[in-house]
Amino acid sequence: MTVTDSSSSLACRVDPVVVERQVAARLLSPNFNRWAEQAAAAGHCTSPIRLTGSATTLDKTTGEVLSTYSTTGEPDGVLYVRCGNRRASVCPSCSHEYKGDTWHLLAAGAAGGMKGVPESVAAHPMVFATVTAPSFGPVHTTRTGQGGLGRCHPRRRVVCQHGRPVGCNAVHADGDSRLGQPLCRDCYRYTEHVVWQWHAPELWRRFTITLRRRLAARLGMTQTRLVQLARLSFAKVAEFQRRGVIHFHALIRLDGPASAVTGEHPFPVPLVDVPAEVLADVIRETAALVAYDAPPASDGEPGLRLRFGKQVDARPVTSTASRDDGREQSRDLHPETVAAYIAKYATKACEEFGLPQRLRSPEAAARLGVNAHICRLLATVLDVASTGGEHYAGLVRWAAMLGFRGHFSTKSRRYSTTLGRLRTARKRWQLQRLRGESCDEGTTGWQDDDPAEDSTLVLSDWALAGIGWLTAGDAALAATGSDGVRDWRDAKVRTRSHPSTSARTYGT
């Protein structure tokens, strides 16, 4: 059974008896061990890319052929390569690897001591900030009172202009299907919601610009002088709230100026004394000030002034804080705790609302069981795209993201390492293991040059053969292997130097 599309649900579409026969045939095949090695090398990906071709490694100096590889000798005649999709609902294996890379990227910039980032960055002023969207109308929510969970919107029996109650005396538990739903969908400002979501990346950009200005003003100096003394670095992750709107989590750190960067000190200390508490205060002040005047969503309507919401959280991050303290238990946060908290959102999108990729029809969403609020948002996205002119025409392409067009995980240039360097280091570590060389997981791959790479030349010729496993049985075996490997990696990380630290679940 050959497939050319994703095999994530292939096993579910085939008769279980057929799947069992395919699994047995693969397990009993004489080349199963080699197939299993291929599946492991592809990370037990849900929908691996199948390639045919060959590669030859030559010595650059002598022209000697060091090694050759061809897919003709493989069990299925193909090479399996990861799909690389970061969404957990599409490929749990590749998503888990991306989540681990994101954790390392965030933790390296927060705690240092890994991935080429020195431990000294942990002493820099650093803040974990959360900025949210404003209210577009009351929605069902959870509240915490002195005695535990409180009522949603405790009010007297008053109704809105549409005859619906403006309050809710229910106590909602996590998992309640009403959470995030408007009390009155006719009162809810859907157009404003979509317009804010569309321009959220621009609002964040203006936030970073204004933050530098406000920090300079707080220190009593010009922006030019601040650039000579310090530089702001950040890593940001976007998260969807239950009501279907984005908010941002960010680690914001103050470093030394670019002029102080050297090979020995790539992350210099700031040349001005700014306590983390002061930086947190400036962040809260900036979030309240920044604004963007958005174009009107249709002809004849006024434009909207967009701002962040009133719920802004800014807390110092220090290596002296306890790793076991949750966000609500301690004022100061540990770098690894924060990194684990925000890394998990790098692999999420609108799938948690039941919206698959490329879905643009609210009617199709309703047939999939998506709740009425999200369907209404999807319809509003399409309406604004058709009436908003050139400013909102691109909304159609981002309908499945409810109008959010930004990246879920971004960082400033000098925050820490990069995903590209993480992947290069992983490849070098794997090559060193194949060569039988000693490997240090903490330092391998972070040198700028690899002598082995400089002395060799690889000539390759590849062609796409398809996407996905060849049979539903292979897909089932890969899924089982993927689950086992993820569980083993998570358990291994939890039992490293800090056995009680659950935050490091996302390391690899």
What is the gyration radius calculated from CA atoms?
Answer: 26 Å
Q: Give the SSE string.
A: HHHEEEHEEEHHEEHEEEHHHEHHEH
How many separate helices? Answer: 13
Q: Main beta sheet: strand number and arrangement?
A: 5 strands, antiparallel
Q: How would you state the average pLDDT, rounded?
A: 84
Percent of residues in beta strands: 15-25%
Provide the helix percentage: 25-40%
Large-scale geometry: globular
Look at the helices and sheets and give the structural class.
alpha+beta
Q: How many extended strands? A: 13
Which parts are unreliable, with pLDDT below 50 for 5 consecutive residues or more? 1-8, 496-508
Q: What strand order characterises the main sheet?
A: 11-4-8-7-12
User: End-to-end span in angstroms?
Assistant: 34 Å
